[in-house]
Amino acid sequence: MQKEPTGKEILLAALRNEQTPRPAWLPFVGVHGGKLIGKTATEYLQSADYIVQGLTKASDLYKPDGLPVVFDLQMEAEVLGCNLQWADEVPPSVTSHPLASRTLDELPAFELEKGRYPVAREAMVRCQETIGRDVALYGLITGPFTLASHLRGSELFLDMMIAPDDVHRLLDFCANVGCRAADFYLQNGADVIAVVDPMTSQISQEHFEAFTAQPLNKVFAHVAAAGALSSLFVCGDATRNLELMCRTKCDNLQVDENIPLDLLKTLAGKYSKSFGGNLKLTVVLLLGSEADCMLDAIRCVDLGGVQGFILAPGCDLPYATPEQNLIAVSQMVHDDYQRQVSRTSLKATQMESFDDIQLPDYSNRDVVFVDVITLDSAACAPCLYMVDAARAAAELADCYVTVREHKVKTRDGIGYMSRLHVENIPSICIDGELRFSSRIPDRETLVAAIKERARHKQQGGMS
Predict the structure, then answer these.
(1) pLDDT digits (tens, 9 = 90+) for 225-236
(2) Fold exhibited by the domain 362-458
C-alpha cells in the first residue's frame, strides 16, 4: 500500500511544478501567530518561544503544507541601520532611511548575530524539530528593490532617472545581503527561500528589466546553487511586470488578488514555473464569512488546478483574521467531497453598497483632498511609501492639502475604495479622481498634480 505523502512533500512537489494529489496550502502566518497565542505583534516577533508556539498552533488549526517561520520585511533593514516603529497588530515599519544622509559604504555591516536574527535562528531550528517533518518551512528574505527602498526612501525612484549607476550599486549590495540571509535560513533548516519584493509592483517594465531582474536572479541563482527551491512573492498590482517576473530564475511565483490567477497560470506555464495565490486577503479572509472563504478557496482551486499550484493568501495574514475562516479554507483543501458540496450549496455574503460612506464635496471645498487607499501603511511597504510620497508632496505643493489614508482592513477603508472606484492598492485619488493606481509617483509629478487641481479650483472649475 502506497504511503500518503506528507503536506511538506505535497508542497515541495508543487514548487517543482509537479502534479499533486490535492492543492498545496500555504497560509502566510506572520503576526497572526501572535494573535493565536494572545500576544502582540511586538511581543511575538521578538521571542522564539512565542513564534514556535504560534506556528505550532497554526499547524494544528489550519493543517498547512508550508509556513513561513518569520514574516517581517524589516529584519535586514534593522541590522543595516533603519529605525523601526513597533505596533500591536502589524510588523514593525521603517521610520528612517540611512542612505538619505550617508553613503552606502557608511552603512553598518550586515551581521547575522544582530537584530532579531538570533530569534529567527532559534525559532527555525525548533520548528524544524517539531512541525518540520510534515510542514515545509519558509525562510522569507526582503527582495533587493524593497530593501533598497527601506535604505534610501522614496528618493530611490528619482535616483533611477538621475543616478542609475548609484542604484545599480545599491541593488547589487541588497542582492548580496539577500544571498547571506538565504544562507542563514538554509543552514538553520529552511526548506524554501521566498524572496518577498512588493516594491517591484510599483515600477515600470523598463525599470524592472534595467534595475531589478539581475539582482533578483543573483539571489535565485545562489539559492539554486545551494540545492534549494525559491519563490518570488510580489503583492500589489504587478500585472505589467508579471511576464518579466516569470522570466527570472525563481522556481515559483506568488501573487495577490490584484493579479488574475488564470493569467498567472498561463504565464507561469509558459516559463515552466509553479505558481500560487490568490485568496482575497481583507474582504474575504479578514472580514468575510466562512462561506465567503470557502467559495474563494474553491475559486482559486478551480483556476489553479493540481499541477504546480499553491493556494495562499496574497500577503502576510492580518493579525485579527478569524481562525474559523482559515479553518474553512483548509477544509476546502483537504476534503474534496466537501469542496464539491460547497461549490453548489454555498452563497457568498452580498457585498455592501457603502451608500452610508459620505465622500466630501470635493468641488466646493478650498482644500485639495489626497486620498490614499492602502492595505495598511504600517504593514505594507508599497503602501508606506505611497503615503510618504503623498505627505511629502502636500508639504511642497504651496496650497491647502489634506492627505488621508484609507486602510482596506476596515469597513470604512473598503467603503472609500468602493465609492472612489479604486480597484488596486495602493492608489492615490486627488479630489475623488483616481490619479495613480498601484504606482508610486515621483515627488515632482505628484506635486504638479496637486497644484494643477488647486489652480482648477481657484479658477472656479468643476470636477
Answers:
(1) 999 999 999 988
(2) Glutaredoxin (3.40.30)
